[in-house]
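task queued by scheduler; priority normal; single chain, no ligands, no partner chains; default sampling; output format set to structure tokens
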Amino acid sequence: MGMKRLDGNVALVTGGSRGIGAAVALRLAEDGADVVLTYESNAERAAEVVERIKATGRRALAVQADSADAEALTASVDRAAGTFGRLDILVNNAGAFLVGPLEDMGPAEADRTLAVNVRAPYLASRAAVRHMTDGGRIISIGSNMAGRTPFPGFALYAMSKTALIGMTKGLARELGPRGITVNLVHPGPTDTDANPADGPNAATITAFTALGRYASPPEVAATVAHLAGPDGQYITGASIAVDGGFTV
């Protein structure tokens, strides 16, 4: 068996028990990385992903951590590095998806959304760079709603995902001297439990894409894997849409 692109690397994927996060964790393992994933509550789903990663021949660990809990989140980063001896790749995937009319999105919803979607990626990145050697990778999962918000009720969510653009650019500038790249992937409609391709609003959502279909989670994971690997070493500060043309 030949060398794989990420052999010897350790990756942490937040929210890696389902959907895009699980697909990213599996793809990074297939490319040779050992993977730690966090999950909020579903230990069974997380354990299933761990077993699938181990089936590829890589090491894997699931850590329970609510990304809104700053201490738990930071501890999960430190545990990932401590367990496998290093940390090369951080994927900020965990997200809060709270949408609804403005009058229903009050302080509690705003605090939760900003804690998970903005503060957590920042704090996880801050913790990760303490462990990363030169040439590390930070990749955050944004949303097509940062580029186009055609439906009502998404103001809070779109605001949180748009904030990641500024974070990505700022960290890319700061960490560039160390060869650490920082990038943002904006998925479009993706076939997950939270937004199934056969859901009640799927036809309307699909109509906004140029390709006329939803993505599969592995299609998003493929771009993350490119950014995480050696072929992505000269891409930093970028926001890359994997949205089937939703924002064109």
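post-processing summary
- The chain has a mean pLDDT of 97.
- The chain is about 40% helix and 15% strand.
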